[in-house]
Amino acid sequence: MQRDSASFVVERPVPASEGRTRSSRPIFQWAMGLCMGGACCAAVGALAHWKSSPPAGGAVFWACDRDAGRLVGLDQDLFETTSLQARAPLFVEACRAGGVWFSDAIEATPLSVQRLQRLSAQGEVVFGVDVGPLLDLATIDGGDAVAIELAPWGAARVLQVTQAGEFLDLFSHPQAVCVAGKGARIALGTSDGSLVLLEAGVRGQSALSEVALQGSLVDIAPSDDGWWVLDASGGVSGSRLLRLDERLQTLWQVFTSTAALSLVCDRARERVWLADTSQSSLRRFGPSGLLELALVELPASGLDRGSALRDGGVLLVAPGALLRFNADGQSVPGQGGFDFLVDVAGPYP
Fold it and tell me: Where residue 192 sits, what CATH number does that domain have?
């Protein structure tokens, strides 16, 4: 262990992942970055109404600018207030007490060793641990981090890292790709369509329960009384959105006509925003899977991850900019000038 007055880093053996591949959002985003080029980024920057006024306050949002090697802090109006130098930040998740967890690919490749770090509300690195390549990162109610790590023996494993720095190896599954947590439970999604329920904080456990949902799960998010699940087996024809209860029973499901890879959930309003990664469109689904908004032919493509806003709107990442839409689906000023954004986190709900 190494420690100084500002931060400390835990060092542990990191699994080698050479020679293996797995479908994941980081890999997809790296490939997309190579294909889209600067012209698309310029167009997206124009859509975002790039603002250049002075910063207005402390960091409210944190964005991963992968190609610039920066974790960028922005205020409520999306003006930059601070930035943390990194190698290639890939994931960022908000914490309930302020600050964020984020991962940084320290060799700047999707299957390289990553450093999982915890930032304080003031933007200081207070904890870090080296891990293998991560396929997903989430928190348990804005507290402990949970992640899917590629393991050296061919499976993926579910990791929990507490805010005190304890490292827990919870569970292994050969097809694990996405994870979410709430309360005493962690939900694990697999590429062959299974949803597995685990107990938080228990090393080397067996699954509490498992349900076969079919398809290829790519994202999970907690609701107040269950889980949202996204199945991307439909490809460009569109993803399937499912709502499950606490017992993993399907309450409803809907085919979205949106090739989405990420859920952007508004838990307070029981809504989910889905951005199409293959076309310039955005849809919002409400309770019971009702389609509430469909925004098509947006002058930008490559939308993916995002953060639901407290006013009912949404903030989304495009390669060169942050795009913001209000609760009525109207585009409002965002922020441009980034190299290649891959994730954003707002205040914890």
Answer: 2.120.10.30
The verdict on residue 4 lying in a domain is no
Cβ contacts of residue 175 below 8 Å, gap of 6+?
156, 190, 191, 192, 194
Is 80 a member of any domain? Answer: yes
**Residue 173 located in a structural domain:** yes
Residue 88 — φ and ψ, nearest 5°? -160, 80
Q: pTM score > 0.90 for this model?
A: no
The dihedral built from the CA positions of residue 120, 305, 321 and 22, taken in this order, carries a sign that is: positive
Express each pLDDT in 29-40 by its tens digit.
Answer: 554 454 444 444
CA dist 269 and 281 (Å) reads 21
pLDDT 10s digits, 228-249 = 999 999 998 999 999 999 999 9
* Boundaries of domain holding 261: 10-345
- CA-CA distances (angstroms) from residue 276 to 52, 97, 205? 29, 32, 36
Give the Cα separation of 61 and 39 in Å (integer). Answer: 26
- Cβ-in-10-Å burial (0-12, 13-18, 19+) of 339 comes to middle
The reply to whether 150 falls in a domain is yes
CB atoms within 10 A of CB 41: 24
Q: Confidence class of residue 331 from pLDDT cuts 50, 70 and 90? A: very high
Structural domain total, the chain:
1
Evaluate whether 242 touches 212 at the Cβ level (below 8 Å). no
Find, among 341, 339, 348, 308, the residue nearest to 325 by Cα: 308
**CB-based burial label for 319 (10 Å; 0-12, 13-18, 19+):** buried
Q: Give the bridge partners for 294, in sequence order.
A: 283
